[in-house]
């Protein structure tokens, strides 16, 4: 299942940060980008979980 465009953009930013700064990941230079990506992915997970739960409940009612 594809990620939301917002998360894809954040992933690209993190990837570029890591590529642009030698040892950036080890020195925690890209922490803000990484945290933003994790928040986006969590929001995406919660939304998909809610949609799945609603679909299940609708299936039981019908």
Automatic annotation (TrEMBL):
Pfam families: Cmc1. Keywords: Chaperone, Disulfide bond, Membrane, Mitochondrion, Mitochondrion inner membrane. It is found in: Mitochondrion inner membrane. Its main location: mitochondrion. The keyword Membrane applies. The keyword Glycoprotein does not apply. PROSITE patterns: CHCH (PS51808). GO terms for cellular component: mitochondrial inner membrane. Required for mitochondrial cytochrome c oxidase (COX) assembly and respiration. Belongs to the CMC family. This is COX assembly mitochondrial protein. It comes from Gonapodya prolifera (strain JEL478).
């Amino acid at each position: 299942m594809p990620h939301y465009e917002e998360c894809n953009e954040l992933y690209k930013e993190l990837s570029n940060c890591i590529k642009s700064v030698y040892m950036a990941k080890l020195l925690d230079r890209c922490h803000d980008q990484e945290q933003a990506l994790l928040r986006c992915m969590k929001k995406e997970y919660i939304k998909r979980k809610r949609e799945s739960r609603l679909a299940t409940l609708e299936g039981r009612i019908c």
